[in-house]
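re the bet — no i am not wrong, look at it urself. input seq straight from the record:
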Amino acid sequence: MILITGATGLIGRHLVRRMMDATLPMRCLLSDSRLRNLPWDTGNPHAPEIIIGAVTDEEAFFRAVSGCHAVIHLENAMWWGRRRDLERVELAGARALAAVARAARVGRIITISQLGAAPSSAYTLHRVKGEVEQILRGSGVAFTIIRSGIVYASEDSFINHIAGMLRVNPLFFLLPGAGDIVLHPIYIDDLVEAVYRSLNLIRLVDSTVEIGGAEYMSLRDLMRTVMRVTGMRRFLIGMPPYLLRWLTGVYSRMLPRSLMTSQWLDILAANRAAPLGNTYDYFGFQPRRFEETLLTYLPQRRHFAGALRGSFRRRPRAD
């Protein structure tokens, strides 16, 4: 039995469907608020068992991990949370996971982190991710930590939000700095396949691995690719990062959500890349190329409607 936390998130719902296809027995820890409209076929005989509770509730968490040989820990507040949400969901959740997994004699914890994660990082997102890694390494339970580049998908909160901002502003797009930082985006199906294969890769036990997609690209090149795929040409204007953070803070107080978040700016503050061959070396497959994958879904999406939904949708509750 495998426990998945954060099963209704971007990575989680894709992973659940991948494991249903593989007919692996699994269990999901979900709060009451997430039980409506589950993003998989609940009538499927291989659908996961549901345990009601939150990662910060150690009693419910212990019930969920009991009898599981592995935990895939995906619960996070990366794209929507403020600092207190990151600390409550990610740090408190990791501490609870370490305690209950050790007590329940779980064989291994697998989790997704971020390229650049470090407890000493000056950026909140990477500091919190680094502290989560530190907690899991010291948990007394075998672990596999997969640090990935920015994950993109047809329903992500990065590329789709870029396209939404391009649609809302017909003239320009503001870049933090000169837009020359290097990114290593990875497609959701490739990351999910890496997580799935890691279950059977003994050499990854007690290891931290870094992976990304098929190519590196600067933020400016990424923006040009998105504009080319969507047909929305805009001027790219560099702006001091501290001013962009200030604008993001203003938007976050005017709207339920800001399309560009402080976590965005943490990721875009420095180069975030892994060796190009790591995905093949560790997991045995070649990741998809960025532009070729975007062409399969991005031009067909309604970006203005997506921007409105993203701006006025309430933040998830940190259960």
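see?? The longest helix spans residues 83-103. told u. also Residues 2-148 form a domain with the Rossmann fold fold (CATH 3.40.50.720). so pay up
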